[in-house]
Specification:
Layout: H1 2-23, E1 32-36, E2 39-44, H2 48-57, H3 59-93, H4 112-136, E3 141-149, E4 152-159, H5 161-166, H6 169-198, E5 202-212, E6 227-231, E7 234-235, H7 239-247, E8 254-261, E9 264-271, E10 273-274, E11 282-283, E12 286-294, H8 299-322, H9 331-343, H10 346-375
Helix pairs in contact: 2-4, 3-6, 3-10, 4-6, 4-8, 6-8, 6-9, 9-10
Length: 377
């Protein structure tokens, strides 16, 4: 894992060194391409007319929509702060074994293509919502465009920062809160599509081995991508059946697994280890996931559609909420910062802001600790 991470990091650095050398002298921060280390932005004014038309069509709706975004923003801010505080305490108690914030790196921590599709949707709906809300409140936009941050693609809407800073507090809060509202709304709509349109076309068909724990009982025996269909001759179609079986096992017990690998069924014997969290229970040492197949065939279409929608849902809900964390430059941080400036005297507002930033960075660091340790192997 460490060698893979080093190789990927080296490729990324080499790619950006070449891009920077080729395009640094052609950068245009007004319109067109601008390049810096690990970030490339392409700006255009051509889509501003589309955003204007969208904002003018239902101006009142967008203002109500954005007001909902303000309310959701502060509620989400409180929830995310509480959730990160809770997981940070668990991280300290378990010395980094408790999972916290998960890194979103297509190809490393999430599937490459599904991850890229999900991230693209996250960025487009987020930034479009910012832009439409800003125009509905009469704020000018400078440009829209595409961005590549290291290996993560996205989109952006660039408001006139001077006009935004002079706008009323309510207008600024509307603009800040609208992005996460769009992500959460997109996640909910996607979840409805999954549950009512796609899931009825699928059926469980075993337990997918999505990863094998290094030095665990299955290391070198099971492979990522294997599908467990039976255990000791008992058919296993769902995760619940897998968990029920494992709850009855003991350390040292030899289990016969029927596994689908590369289109062939094979039987594999695995001697279970000791479960790290449940003394007396057997441990297989894999990361299990539900495997599904299509009831109507056409798996070349149904399964990619399902997994694309799944990652659109997961990334929109996760990133949408995380963006409300009260830490500048996240939208939640900007919302809280503007409220502090408006309602607190400067002598109190600044210390409170710095205290909030300090606590936020501390909580974020604690939550990233397990993810970074796991990525490093």
């Amino acid at each position: 894992m460490v060698s893979t991470l080093i190789a990927v990091t080296a490729i990324i650095i080499a790619f950006w060194a070449v891009i920077y050398a080729l395009f640094k002298d052609r950068s245009n921060e007004e319109e067109g391409l601008s390049v810096d280390f690990f970030i490339a932005m392409w700006r255009t004014k051509r889509l501003l007319g589309f955003i204007d038309r969208l904002a003018r069509k239902n101006g009142k709706f967008w203002k109500v929509y954005a007001d909902i975004g303000i309310a959701l923003g502060f509620m989400g801010m409180a929830y995310v702060f509480y959730a990160l505080f809770k997981t940070a305490m668990a991280t300290l108690q378990t010395h980094g074994k408790q999972a916290g914030v998960q890194l979103v790196i297509p190809g490393l921590t999430i599937p490459l293509w599904y991850g890229l599709v999900g991230l693209a949707v996250v960025m487009v709906v987020h930034e479009l919502s910012h832009g439409v809300t800003a125009r509905a409140d009469g704020l000018p936009l400078k440009s829209v465009g595409l961005v590549l941050l290291a290996v993560i693609p996205g989109a952006f809407v660039e408001p006139d920062e001077e006009a935004l800073s002079k706008a009323s507090l309510r207008t600024r809060l509307r603009v800040y809160g609208a992005g996460s509202l769009a992500n959460i709304a997109t996640a909910l709509i996607t979840l409805l599509i999954i549950n009512f349109a796609v899931s009825p076309l699928l059926q469980p068909s075993g337990v997918l081995v999505s990863g094998v724990l290094e030095n665990g009982p299955s290391h070198g025996i099971l492979q990522k991508g294997d599908v467990i269909t039976a255990m000791d001759g008992m058919h296993v179609k769902t995760l619940d059946q897998f968990i029920e079986f494992m709850n009855k096992t003991k350390p040292g017990q030899v289990v016969i697994l029927t596994v689908l690998r590369d289109g062939k069924m094979i039987n594999i014997n695995v001697k279970l280890g000791k479960h790290p969290d449940k003394p007396g229970e057997g441990f297989l040492g894999i990361y299990p996931a539900q495997n599904v197949v299509s009831k109507i065939g056409m798996e070349w279409l149904i399964l990619p559609l399902f997994f694309s929608l799944y990652w659109i849902y997961v990334l929109n809900i996760g990133i949408g909420l995380m963006n409300l964390f009260p830490l500048v430059p996240l939208d939640g941080g900007r919302m809280l910062d503007d409220v502090f400036k408006r309602y607190l005297p400067e002598g109190i507002a600044n210390p409170v802001r710095y205290l909030t930033i300090g606590i936020g960075l501390f909580l974020l660091a604690l939550n990233l600790w397990p993810a970074l340790a796991n990525l490093a192997g």
